[in-house]
């Protein structure tokens, strides 16, 4: 078991500062998933009182994850709508064209290619979509997409989104070095779910392919461009084959 034994420290997920190292310098807690979990979903995705899920049947667990993901997807139209509204604020005409093309493809149900997303990295490194330039409503929507509460002041939302995305970025680097082939089917599905894909109804090979796309994008980004990784939770998952029921 390569990944499902690794659970992030609570502080990294709920807002305290995290200082990344070569891969993840935050101390990781090693723990085997509880018996009975459908596919070893990370326990930190759920409120503490819902840890009783280890008494549930696999079908009940999958139904719960579907409901949880449906709540997450409510933020997707808000995030995409915000991206469309800021297109006129992009100073470079070429970048405006690329962003318009990307939004149009996604609105028409097309899964974007890796180069379509990476072509916009400059837009997400400073105004108007850099981490420090995001508006409060966009940060709230992104927090819901990341399974984080949006009910915090703007400065705390921004700090926590930065922290959370930085940890995922460092974890991605470690996972890329390990290799997706070393992950069990349960670990692959768990890793996809954390990054925005409802993997409960997607075949393992499709999950591995999607995770590979995510890692290619993530490992190409610099720290200043992590707002793109944050938005990638929606951009890369919303139209992926098999993710709609």
From TrEMBL:
What's the protein's topology in the membrane?
Answer: Single-pass membrane protein
Question: What PANTHER family is this protein classified in?
Answer: LETM1 DOMAIN-CONTAINING PROTEIN 1, LEUCINE ZIPPER-EF-HAND CONTAINING TRANSMEMBRANE PROTEIN
Domain of life per record: Eukaryota
What residue stretches are annotated with the Letm1 RBD domain?
A: 71-245
Q: State whether keyword Endoplasmic reticulum applies.
A: no
Gene name of the record = LETMD1
Where in or outside the cell it occurs: the entry states: Mitochondrion inner membrane
Tell me if Transmembrane is a UniProt keyword of this record. yes
Q: How is this protein named in the record?
A: Letm1 RBD domain-containing protein
Keywords for the protein's UniProt record, in alphabetical order: Membrane, Mitochondrion, Mitochondrion inner membrane, Transmembrane, Transmembrane helix
């Amino acid at each position: 078991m390569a990944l499902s034994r690794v659970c992030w420290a609570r502080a990294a997920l709920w807002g305290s500062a995290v200082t990344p190292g070569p891969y993840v310098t935050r101390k990781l807690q090693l723990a085997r998933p509880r018996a009975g979990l459908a596919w070893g979903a990370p326990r930190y995705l759920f409120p503490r009182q819902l840890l009783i899920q280890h008494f549930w049947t696999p079908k009940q667990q999958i139904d719960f994850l579907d409901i949880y993901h449906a709540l997450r997807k409510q933020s997707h139209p808000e995030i995409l709508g915000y991206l469309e509204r800021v297109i006129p604020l992009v100073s470079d005409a070429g970048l405006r064209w690329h962003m318009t093309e990307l939004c149009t493809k996604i609105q028409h149900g097309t899964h974007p290619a890796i180069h379509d997303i990476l072509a916009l990295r400059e837009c997400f490194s400073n105004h108007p979509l850099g981490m420090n330039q995001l508006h409060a409503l966009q940060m709230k929507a992104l927090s819901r997409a990341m399974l984080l509460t949006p009910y915090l002041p703007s400065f705390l939302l921004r700090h926590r989104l930065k922290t959370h995305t930085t940890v995922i970025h460092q974890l991605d680097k470690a996972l890329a070095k390990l290799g997706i082939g070393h992950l069990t089917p349960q670990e692959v599905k768990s890793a996809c779910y954390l990054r925005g894909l409802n993997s409960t109804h997607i075949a393992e090979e499709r999950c591995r392919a999607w995770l590979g796309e995510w890692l290619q994008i993530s490992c190409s980004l610099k720290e200043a461009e992590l707002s793109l990784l944050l938005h990638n939770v929606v951009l890369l998952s919303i139209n992926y084959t098999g993710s709609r029921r």
